Amino acid sequence: MVDLRKLLSKRGGGQPTDPLQLFEGLDRKTSHVNLRPFQVAALKELHKRRDERDLVLKMPTGSGKSTVGLLYLKAHMAATQGVGVYLCPNLQLADQVLVEARRLGLDAHPYASGEPHPHADCLSGQAVIVCTYDKLFNARTTFSRQDVGIVPTALVLDDAHAGVEEVRDAFTLRISDPEGVTHFIGEIDGVMVKHLRSAWRDIREGDPRVLIEVPYWHLPQLGDRVEALVRKYATGADRDLRWPLIRASLPFLRVVIGRGVVELSTEVPLVREIRPYHEAAHRLFMSGTLSDDSVLVRELGCEVAAALGPITPSKESGIGERMILAPTLIDREMNREWLMMWAASRSEKDAVVVLCSSAAEAKEWEAHGAAAPAGHADVAAAVRDLRKGDLRFAAFAQRFDGIDLPDDACRILVLDGIPRGQGLTDEMDSSSSPRDGGVRNRVVYRIEQGMGRAVRSSADYAVVVLGGEALASFVSKTDVRSQMSDEVQAQLTLGKELIDLARGAESASGEEAFDELVDNCLRRAGVWKDIYIQRVRNRVPNPPKGGDPVAVNLADAERRSLVQAIDGDAPAAVDTLSKALNKAKLDSGPSYARYLQVLGRMTVGSDPDEAMRIQRKAYAISHRLLRPTEVTALRPRDAALASAADNVLKWYGQFADGQGAVAEAASRLMDLYFGVGHVAFEDATEFLGAVLGAQSERPERDEGDGPDNLWRWRDMSWVIECKSRSETDAICKRDMGQITLSHSWFERNYPGAPVTPVMVIDTALADLDPIDHLRTIEHEGLAELKDRATQLVGRLAAREPGGWSRKDVALLLDELRLSPTHLHEDVTKQARRRRK
Which residues contact 528 (CB under 8 A, 6 or more apart)? Predict the structure, then answer.
């Protein structure tokens, strides 16, 4: 019998517009496809608020967001017979969405790269378009071609926080041609060598650790050179697909140089240039449980009301069982190299998947037996093999989202260090102070998303291994944990307790204790399951909250003001952001300083002097920002110095647990050796001073004058010049001149204050008479300094932050001989003239 009613259903006019009713009428491909209570609650709320243009939906990883998104789209398509588009960060996720659509009985078709037209059923509103963000977000998107001309009635942005990175990438252009990069560095050499001497020297020498941003006030003069660089050295695809999107923002671009690349990016993506996105009638931003949605407002132009009122259905069963462990917190010898060998051995029993930030890092795992697929087809094949059990050890690059590895496909998931984005600008921002609008939050989001690759349902379980000391310390910081979901915070807290048990196990080595913990989870030990229920599952999972009103409104004001500035109305731009800052009563601190820098960027074209005044004000608050051309340093700064014990307590107090501080110290002190680049060495020296209780500063970097490093205690100061790459066997005339100038700088700024000039150089001999009281720190002294700092942090970690008093820390510093007097005696040598 021919059932004509099915034809009526496919035409759309007879379909219900309530997504729950629509679901009941679908020809589902498997009989067990049913909606979970969590999904039902989400769909009810989406239907209730269907007239709102923008909506934010927060659901934990593995809870069925794609099903909800597809039904949301189909309901809007049924109501208007318009086009529905489902955006995914990558092809793997797009493939999964297409599979889910087939299971539901929904018509959906891919709109792949290179295809000029979508499927005819998609254009008529009968089927959903599924594609990646980069298919839509480019200067020549086929969505806007005259013979296609799609403006969606509804648009779903899946994994929207990950999608932000894809959109930012569309508004970023990279020049990697060696000739072009060398030419551009030469073009701006005179400007940059005055701006940051040491860092620019490292850039010219090719130090891969150093990234540097060209100050925005130089861009008006460099505009023609930037355009010439793009015309001559950019690839054809970049010139065609990216440059037209960012060219209008040229005076407001960010230019970052490092690792043989010049990267140009917009301060915020000008998404209005993508008409199908900008004019879509309805947009659904779907994400996990990250608490801060201001990034969606700042980067994607999401409406403020949507970010402040997300749909967050409660979920009774949690996000699955995860044991989160950081082996380096058990034993520092259980480092990345150890982890590679352990994972290779462990993969004989359990499937192990490693998530890396780059293809080069993934390749390093290949040497230990892991598959390291690259490209969509290879990644898809590897995922299939993992699911079938034909592959048990794989390393993926930049796959913190978009691959699903349920059940036995992945029982051990390794996060190989702090997840980074692909861009230099993103990495530079992530390593500095937190940026409003979510740069640091994007790192947190990658971590949470990465953890979710191996746990895809409430019944699933896996061990998540945090690889490396840097990642272990990062997730131990209280400000980082506060950005994570309640359940992940509980899992991290439980993981820390497990680490403490392993470190205290008398009958087992660190490696044996680690294996025992892993076995408790993967072999389903009853005691482990009881502990997990008690410590994690029995916590009432709070639905993720809406965005912070102050942060969201400031993100909106910043975006609107930057668009006004790009359009040539700098006064209106400044007024928009200034009013928002006043309304938020934000007039101090690092966040305020960053907004001041944005104001300076918007002002420089119309009033360069005013822009520089604003930048000086911003820089006086936070030295993490761009250093202005002239810095007026207010010295002596902080005349009433805190005690060394108070400074140590302040440093230690930023961690949620002591082992995080241990990991941070181990990670940062790794750069304190002769031969490392200038910037990395001076950064490590600054960190070391803070750990030792000094007020630790970088005057030459921060003010363009003074020593490389300055350590100040109440009763003594050290003026430090670092010569980490000196290859001479004696202090030369030039180096002696530098320490002399630095010593004079201190005496001018701190008249009468006791000071010791110190040179970190692997010799105590000099080619000429050294200045009075000059001390040197050679290889042995540097090793002793690092060892004592490591001992200090290890002893501190015996008590949780908050468990130490000022008196106890002062006694500990004295016991470890960490006062300036003790350090002077134990780790420095008197410089002397070399005999001829």
Answer: 323, 520, 521
**Sorting pLDDT into bands at 50, 70 and 90, what band is 222?**
confident
% the chain with pLDDT above 90: 58
- pLDDT tens-place string over residues 232-273: 999 888 888 999 999 888 888 999 999 999 999 999 999 999
Task: Please name the residues in contact with 198: beta carbons below 8 A apart, sequence gap of 6 or more.
Answer: 678, 679, 682, 700, 701, 708
Torsion angle (degrees, nearest 10) of CA 824, 827, 830, 834: -170
The residues near 751 (Cβ < 8 Å, ≥ 6 apart) are none
Q: What's the token pair of residue 476?
A: 């131990």
- Cβ contacts of 757 within 8 Å, gap of 6 or more: 718, 719, 721, 739, 742, 743, 771, 773, 774, 775
CA–CA dist 559, 307 (Å, integer): 14
pLDDT in tens, 349-366: 999 999 998 889 999 999
| Angle (deg, nearest 10), helices 644-652 and 806-815 | 110
- Residue 311 is given by DSSP the state B
Mark 444-479 as b/e (b = at least 16 C-beta within 10 Å): bbbbbbbbbbbbbebebbbbbbbbbbbbbbbbbbee
Extract the tokens encoding 117.
């037209």
Under the banding of pLDDT at 50, 70 and 90, the label for residue 432 is: low
- Average pLDDT of the chain is 88
How far apart are the C-alpha atoms of 195 and 701, rounded to whole Å?
9
Cis peptide before 208 (omega within 30 of 0): no
Which tokens belong to 202? 């490292």
Mean pLDDT calculated for residue range 176-180: 93
The answer to whether 628 and 616 have CB atoms below 8 angstroms apart is yes
pTM of the model: 0.83
Residues 166 and 89: their CA atoms lie apart, in Å, by 7
Q: Which of 793, 814, 784 is nearest to 668 (CA)?
A: 793
Cα–Cα distance, 678 to 441 (Å, whole number): 29
Q: How far is CA 375 from the centre of its chain?
A: 23
Cα(394)–Cα(414) distance, rounded to whole angstroms?
10
Characterize 409-419 residue by residue with b for buried, 16 or more Cβ atoms within 10 angstroms of its Cβ, and e for exposed: bbbbbbbbbbb
- Residue 169, pLDDT above cutoff 50: yes
For the ranges 192-196, 575-579, 657-661, 674-678, the lowest mean pLDDT is seen at 192-196
pLDDT tops 70 at residue 30: no
pLDDT in tens, 85-136: 999 998 888 998 999 999 999 999 999 988 999 999 999 999 999 999 999 9
For residue 63, give the 3-state DSSP assignment: coil
Q: Are strands 709-712 and 717-722 parallel, antiparallel or unpaired?
A: antiparallel
In the chain, what percentage of residues exceed pLDDT 70? Answer: 92
Higher pLDDT, 719 or 471: 719
Nearest CA among 486, 343, 335 for reference residue 411: 343
- List beta partners, residue 58: 287
| Nearest one of 159, 143, 160 to 151, comparing CA atoms | 143
Inter-helix orientation angle 678-691/779-796, to 10° = 50
Q: Domains (ranges, CATH) in the chain?
A: 4-160+274-308 (3.40.50.300), 172-268 (no CATH), 321-537 (3.40.50.300), 549-621 (no CATH), 644-833 (3.40.91)
DSSP 506-562: SSS-HHHHHHHHHHHHHTT-HHHHHHHIIIIITS--PPPPPPPHHHHHHHHHHHHHH
Best CA proximity match to 483, nearest among 516, 526, 441, 517: 441
pLDDT at residue 94, rounded to an integer = 93
Tokens standing for residue 289? 């449980």
